[in-house]
Structure formats: structure tokens, C-alpha cells
């Protein structure tokens, strides 16, 4: 076709070229279309396959899980509408640049799906959850292995979000009968609970590591702290908790059973638990100071001493009894977070089975509370 003649773009040859028996050359639109179909891009720019961070190995199940996350599963994160929007929109967009975060989102979404479908179909989603969780860990672990060197202002929000999602996945594992059939029966179940608590502690520490970065990010609302002066009388249940001091108030220091460091760890953990109960009654007075039940749960896990964690892992009956009383707060929060539903009940069942008969009267009150609200 002559450049000086306007083409009428008929196919396969324009009318001008047909009259002059000339070769009609069009751009290879089929090739261009095929390339664009192979890559999905929200905005004009390089295709996803060319992006250095993108894992393009998505299938229809993954797309279904991403849709489920945006529409349903993300609603269990945060208290305010803007908090949920951060998980629904901002962090989903960040995940498009950091595949380990996308896998974390899909893993939690798969757990949510498994809860909503028949058991036979739910097994498929539990397998998907396990797969995506395994894909989350390598890059995440590489970063947190040396946080000072590997975490940056660019990736910190993805790392923090992934830490929270990994902890949520662990909570789902504790509370999901389809995945944790042994829960409530003994030591293997306790290992899962300890892993969840450890991951939650780790997520809080990563969150607080560079608060100068996180205060301006989508997860800044997780930085809220309760009021520094905590009035224990605010809790109507403090009498139940204060009585737990009898577990170790009259200990002797005989070798091989008790030590001063153990007693200190229990006393500190009990004090934190009493403060958490009092904090759970606080209203959300200020937007930047979101106290209440959420912070009560997080601060206890974040602050209890490492020695208590070791005593719980053994397990010592006194540590199990304190954990049982924490379950009451956990159950009350579960009404706001789908991924905590059933977790308190299953941990309480585990504690009850692990305790000898002579210790079970110490958990009578939390058992009654949890049964009444199950």
C-alpha cells in the first residue's frame, strides 16, 4: 500500500492493493494480542512476566482465592472500616510486588474458603492453604534472618503483613478440625499452640522494630497502645485472676521443682494477664489510641517473659492454667475475627486434657465462661 494513499483497512487486502495487485502489510496484531493475554497488568507499563518480583504461576483456584480475600476474608482484619480497607486494597496491591505476601494472602483466604464449603470440598482448600503457606516462608525467612540488613522502607509493609498472616494461618491451624485432628489431646496440640504464640510474638516485634516506617504505612493502626496507667479494678473479673496468685505464692525453693526465676515469670505473666483483662474494658477513646480487647490480646503475648513460654512448652500446670484464663479473652475477640473462631475452645480442651485431676479446679471459671459463650 502506498504511504500517500489512505488505506480503507479491508481484510485480507485493502481495496487499493487489490486494484494494483500489491502486497498489503498490516501490523501483526495477533501476535501483539497474544502477548498481552499472557500478562495481566493493572496499569500501562511492563508486563507482569517482566516484573522482577512477580510470581506468575497463578491458576483458577488462586484467582478464586484472591477474589475471596478481597470480598470476604479480609473483613476479619482490623476494627474500623479504614483498617479493613488497608488489608483489602492497600496490602493486596503491595502483594502484587512481593509474591511472598501474595502467597500469604492466598493461604489465609484458602482457610476462610475451607470454613464455608462442605467438608469434602474444604479439604481441597486446606491443601491450597498449606501450599501457599510453604511458598510464603522462603523469602520471608530470608528477610527476617537479618532484619537490620534485609528489611527496608520499601519492603517493610510486605514483611509486617506477611508476619501477621503467618500468625493468622497458625491460629487457623489450631482452630481448624480438618487440619488439626489431634488438638485437645496432648503434647502435639500444645506444640501447635506454642508455635502460634511464638509467631504472634514475632509479628509484634517486627512491627515495632522500625516504627518510624510503619507509622505512615497501611498497618499503622496495629501500633496502638493501651493507656500506661492501668486500673485493675476496671475488670469485674479481677477477683478470679487475683486468686491465681495462690498457685505460686507459697512455693518453697526446693531444687528440681521451683526456682525464684520461675516464680518471677509466673507472677509477671499473671500481672500482665490482669492488666489485659482491665484493658479489655477500655473504650476506644481516641483514633490513635485503639485500646480495648484487641490490644489486651496482643500485649499479653508480646510481653510475657520468655521463661513463661519455656514453662508452657514443658508443660507446667501453672503455665497451662494461666493460658486457660487467656482463652476467655481470646473467645470474646473471636466474634470480630473469623480466623479465631473455635480457637479458644480447642485450646481449653487441650489444657483440660493435659492437666491432672488435682489441678482442674483452677480452670473451673474459664471452662464455665467458654462453655457459656460457645
TrEMBL record:
It comes from the Eukaryota. This is Zn(2)-C6 fungal-type domain-containing protein. Keywords: Nucleus. It comes from Viridothelium virens. InterPro entries: Sterol_Uptake_Regulator, Zn2-C6_fun-type_DNA-bd_sf, Zn2Cys6_DnaBD. Residues 5-32 form the Zn(2)-C6 fungal-type domain. GO terms for molecular function: DNA-binding transcription activator activity, RNA polymerase II-specific; zinc ion binding. Pfam families: Zn_clus.
Amino acid at each position: 500500500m502506498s504511504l500517500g494513499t489512505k488505506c480503507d483497512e479491508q481484510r485480507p487486502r485493502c481495496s487499493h492493493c487489490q486494484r494494483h495487485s500489491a502486497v498489503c502489510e498490516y501490523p501483526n496484531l495477533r501476535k501483539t494480542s497474544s502477548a498481552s493475554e499472557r500478562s495481566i497488568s493493572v496499569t500501562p507499563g511492563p508486563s507482569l512476566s517482566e516484573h522482577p518480583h512477580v510470581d506468575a504461576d497463578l491458576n483458577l483456584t488462586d484467582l478464586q482465592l484472591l477474589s475471596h480475600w478481597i470480598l470476604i476474608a479480609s473483613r476479619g482484619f482490623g476494627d474500623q472500616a479504614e483498617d479493613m480497607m488497608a488489608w483489602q486494597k492497600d496490602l493486596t496491591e503491595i502483594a502484587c510486588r512481593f509474591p511472598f505476601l501474595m502467597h500469604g494472602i492466598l493461604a489465609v483466604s484458602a482457610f476462610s474458603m475451607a470454613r464455608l464449603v462442605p467438608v469434602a470440598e474444604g479439604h481441597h482448600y486446606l491443601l491450597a492453604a498449606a501450599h501457599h503457606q510453604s511458598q510464603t516462608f522462603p523469602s520471608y525467612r530470608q528477610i527476617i534472618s537479618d532484619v537490620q540488613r534485609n528489611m527496608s522502607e520499601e519492603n517493610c509493609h510486605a514483611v509486617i503483613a506477611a508476619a501477621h498472616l503467618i500468625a493468622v494461618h497458625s491460629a487457623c491451624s489450631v482452630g481448624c478440625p480438618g487440619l488439626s485432628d489431634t488438638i485437645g489431646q496432648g503434647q502435639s496440640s500444645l506444640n501447635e499452640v506454642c508455635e502460634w504464640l511464638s509467631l504472634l510474638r514475632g509479628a509484634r516485634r517486627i512491627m515495632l522494630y522500625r516504627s518510624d516506617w510503619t507509622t505512615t504505612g497501611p498497618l499503622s493502626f496495629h501500633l496502638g497502645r493501651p493507656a500506661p496507667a492501668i486500673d485493675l479494678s476496671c475488670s469485674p473479673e479481677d477477683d478470679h485472676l487475683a486468686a491465681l496468685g495462690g498457685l505460686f505464692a507459697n512455693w518453697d525453693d526446693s531444687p528440681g521443682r521451683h526456682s525464684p526465676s520461675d516464680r518471677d515469670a509466673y507472677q509477671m505473666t499473671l500481672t500482665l494477664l490482669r492488666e489485659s483483662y482491665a484493658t479489655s474494658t477500655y473504650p476506644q477513646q481516641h483514633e490513635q489510641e485503639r485500646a480495648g480487647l484487641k490490644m489486651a490480646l496482643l500485649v499479653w503475648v508480646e510481653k510475657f517473659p520468655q521463661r513463661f513460654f519455656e514453662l508452657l512448652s514443658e508443660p507446667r500446670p501453672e503455665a497451662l492454667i494461666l493460658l486457660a484464663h487467656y482463652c476467655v479473652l481470646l473467645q470474646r475477640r473471636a466474634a470480630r475475627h473469623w480466623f479465631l473462631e473455635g480457637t479458644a475452645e480447642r485450646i481449653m480442651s487441650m489444657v483440660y486434657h493435659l492437666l491432672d485431676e488435682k489441678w482442674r479446679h483452677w480452670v473451673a471459671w474459664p471452662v464455665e465462661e467458654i462453655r457459656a459463650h460457645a
